[in-house]
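Hi, here's the filled form for the chain we discussed.

Project: internal
Contact: R.S.
Residues: 142
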Amino acid sequence: MQENNKELVVTKVFDAPCELVWKAWITPELIAQWFAPGIVMDVRELDVRPGGHFRFGDPNNKTAGEYTGTYIVVKPCTELSFYVMDFSEDPTGIAAGFKAVFEELGKQTKVTLTSIPPENSYDKGASDAWVGCFDRLAKVIK
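And the returned structure, exactly as it came back:
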């Protein structure tokens, strides 16, 4: 993890082949289990292609707590970039952009998540949230 209050970088090596890690990023049943720390998400919309949209929400709150976004780059086992609006804590939404780069390391896969413009100011809470998501992702792909 790297912090500079402008850019967020989180890296993790998963004990799984790239195809399995990639699948966890694009399959509704799998995304639901790891995308938000602490809850199983309700995947309400998922169109994984450049320009495609997604909408995830807290199943306990049908009107708030949503993450909506648009995919920018979709290159299987290489890169997944997207913009997201996070309505989970702010009803006006918090915009962020992320680039996940997938790198095959034999039977393992390294994923590096980096913030992309529009950039927010990131703090330890944001880093911890993504680290928590990646920890959950590691359990989902076993």
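Let me know if anything looks off before we file it.
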